[in-house]
Design brief:
mainly alpha, 4 helices, elongated
Length: 202
């Protein structure tokens, strides 16, 4: 009789420990999923901000500058086309990010999407630098050589404009550098999170 009670107590304790272990694993998995999701949401927000800024410059800021300065139509078109092209990788990345669902998709599918996203980011960095340099060269060639409505002369005003342009580009460069560093940290969090979640599915 005592032996039966001892066995029953032992089985009950084993079951309780097994249930507690399952609950603990679920809690850990939920914490990892939450952290991964938080990093993912931050990347989405960063990308949305970049799209909004690009659209504001495209449709508000630069058209305003063009209407209030002697910038030629050709130069205006060069910058507008460049900004429009710059939207393509941003929208492409957003489409991939929309497919990433930490809760529903399997880790293998998520890893493939993350890899695809990282490849676009790598190509985007090189393309953006090349595009920015080419745009500036074409813009200044257009203005200094083919602007029929305004003759540019080396003066304090021109030097100020060029100086402000350089300062703007440097500011944009350092902001972009900080964004890239933060983006890489978030991507690392997502990759680590997916690696940890894979252990729960194996």
């Amino acid at each position: 009789m005592e032996l039966e009670k001892l066995k029953s107590s032992w089985n009950t304790m084993n079951q309780a420990m097994s249930d507690a272990e399952i609950i603990n694993m679920r809690v850990v998995k939920d914490l990892i999923s939450h952290k991964t999701r938080s990093a993912y949401d931050s990347i989405v927000m960063q990308n949305v901000q970049n799209i909004v800024v690009n659209l504001l410059i495209l449709f508000v800021v630069f058209p305003y500058v063009w209407m209030n300065t002697p910038i030629s139509k050709t130069s205006f078109a060069i910058v507008e086309v460049s900004l429009t092209i710059g939207l393509i990788p941003l929208i492409w990345k957003q489409c991939i990010l929309a497919k990433i669902n930490v809760t529903d998709k399997k880790c293998n599918e998520l890893s493939k999407l993350v890899l695809q996203y990282k490849k676009i980011c790598a190509h985007e960095t090189f393309a953006t630098i090349l595009q920015a340099c080419l745009t500036m060269v074409l813009f200044y060639v257009s203005e200094l050589c083919f602007n029929e409505y305004y003759t540019y002369e080396i003066s304090a005003k021109i030097l100020i404009v060029v100086g402000l342009t350089i300062i703007t580009l440097l500011t944009a460069f350092f902001i972009g550098l900080w964004q890239r560093r933060r983006h890489d940290e978030l991507m690392k969090e997502i990759e680590n999170g997916l690696e940890d979640l894979r252990e729960f599915t194996e």
